[in-house]
């Protein structure tokens, strides 16, 4: 059995204030004790989930002539195709055995921040695949809204106004990340994994997985636990930014992916970070005489940049 709780969030989305509070309390316990939780009752259509996985598989199986024109734009843009071995989540260890494709917030061509080349404001790179862009943007926008709804629960649990985070998430640094872990034949070099041990960087991650499994989570005692596949559920976790924002009341938890042998593994991650100019300062309800503020204020963009750049530094070429 997994130590990761399964939380039905339908009452948070559609319930009475009392029902919302019950869900918020459950989310808060998970964020303090484990840092991971599954959510059901999220309302994301099953057929859309299916199309996202199908289109993701089509991208990764497409010829290089499809992927090369949409190659990774670098950490400052954080969009496009990342080749196999192009990322190292656990610095000092061998490169991760995965490939990825990043999609950010879709901006109008005349968006002032895009024209000014503001931090993490770049045009998405769309591969020449029928229906790919429409499917991914539909999914991106729905899961973005779902992530904001989860923040309603976090705010209630932390003693804040329900909508406290809304203005910090209305133009976020959000990344939809398609992931493919190719089949592994034989033992890997020492320390090499599908995805090396790491914590996520932002506020919250919403992960959809196929049936293959492989995600592992480190509990507070240091044991590595399998995160079993829960059909139809998202597995969610707190990232470093929300941990910092909450003055370490919420915790980001180390995790990794061990690719099962001789199987393709696909997952779809959505990372929700605050707006680039959002000020991440310790929440007033998370500061007490016994718990003074641990961190200086920082913008969302500066915090993310500090975490992303080491991930790609050794693979810049």
UniProtKB/TrEMBL annotation:
Keyword line: Iron, Metal-binding, Oxidoreductase
Superkingdom field: Bacteria
Gene3D superfamilies for the chain: B-lactam Antibiotic, Isopenicillin N Synthase, Chain
GO-annotated molecular function: metal ion binding; oxidoreductase activity
Residue ranges of domain Fe2OG dioxygenase in the record: 172-274
InterPro entries found in the cross-reference section: DIOX_N, IPNS-like_FE2OG_OXY, IPNS-like_sf, Oxoglu/Fe-dep_dioxygenase_dom
Pfam families tied to this protein: 2OG-FeII_Oxy, DIOX_N
Family: Belongs to the iron/ascorbate-dependent oxidoreductase family.
Protein name as catalogued: Isopenicillin N synthase
Organism: Bradyrhizobium erythrophlei
């Amino acid at each position: 059995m997994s130590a990761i709780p399964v939380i039905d969030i339908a009452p948070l989305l559609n319930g009475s204030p009392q029902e919302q509070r019950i869900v918020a309390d459950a989310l808060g316990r998970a964020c303090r004790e484990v840092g991971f939780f599954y959510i059901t009752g999220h309302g994301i259509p099953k057929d859309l989930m299916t199309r996202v996985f199908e289109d993701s598989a089509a991208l990764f199986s497409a010829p290089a002539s499809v992927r090369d024109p949409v190659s990774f734009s670098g950490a400052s843009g954080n969009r496009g195709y990342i080749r196999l071995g192009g990322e190292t989540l656990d610095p000092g260890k061998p490169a991760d055995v995965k490939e990825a494709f990043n999609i950010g917030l879709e901006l109008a061509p005349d968006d002032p921040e895009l024209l000014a080349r503001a931090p993490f404001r770049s045009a998405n790179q769309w591969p020449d695949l029928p229906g790919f862009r429409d499917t991914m943007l539909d999914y991106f926008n729905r899961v973005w809204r779902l992530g904001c709804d989860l923040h309603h629960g976090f705010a209630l649990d932390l003693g804040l106004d329900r909508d406290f985070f809304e203005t910090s998430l209305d133009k976020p640094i959000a990344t939809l990340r398609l992931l493919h872990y190719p089949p592994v034949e034989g033992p890997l070099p020492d320390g090499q994994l599908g995805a090396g041990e790491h914590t996520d960087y932002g506020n919250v991650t919403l992960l959809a997985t196929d049936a293959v499994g492989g995600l592992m989570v480190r509990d507070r005692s240091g044991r590595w636990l399998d995160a079993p596949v829960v059909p139809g559920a998202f597995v969610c976790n707190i990232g470093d930014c929300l941990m910092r924002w909450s003055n370490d009341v919420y915790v980001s938890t180390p995790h990794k992916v061990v690719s099962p042998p001789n199987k393709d593994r696909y997952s779809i991650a959505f990372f929700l970070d605050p707006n680039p100019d959002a000020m991440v300062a310790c929440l007033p309800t998370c500061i007490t005489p016994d718990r003074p503020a641990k961190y200086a204020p920082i913008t969302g963009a500066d915090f993310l940049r500090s975490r992303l750049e080491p991930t790609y530094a050794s693979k810049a070429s």
